[in-house]
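subagent[fold] <- orchestrator: predict structure for attached chain, return tokens only, no commentary.
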Amino acid sequence: MAGEVVERVRSIALPLFTELGLELVDVEFCREAGGWILRLYLDKHDGVTLDDCQRVSEELSDLLDVENIIHHPYTLEVSSPGLNRPLRQESDFLRFAGQRARVTTLQAVAGQRRFLGFLRGYEDGRVALEREDGTTVLIPYALISKARLDPVL
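subagent[fold] -> orchestrator:
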């Protein structure tokens, strides 16, 4: 059920995000202690503002009411993905080249499943990640289970 809601919300939200010049980073629909939460993470090249979040929240709330795809109470949250932004699309690995990231794979690549290093790009279905020892590993995109920015603070 949650997966269906996420896909329906994504299809409703994408045109709105495009119209507003925003990127839809992720959609989550899960039950937490306070009840059901529908979370959308948005981004844009020059940074997300509170006004962006408020506008998306108001417009998306109206669209979701019309579509009536969630049949029980829930809370809508719209926010920036933050410093540890998830990397979901192939284009993310190009856009954030040069930045530090953590990548976890479904199976071992070069003898390991967890990587930390600097993104060096994306080509031929593989993410190039320069490890802290200076070596570069090519990670097949299809094997990535989780990836996110991990800035040095």
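orchestrator: received. Logging for downstream: The helical segments are 2-19, 50-67, 90-95. The mean pLDDT is 93.
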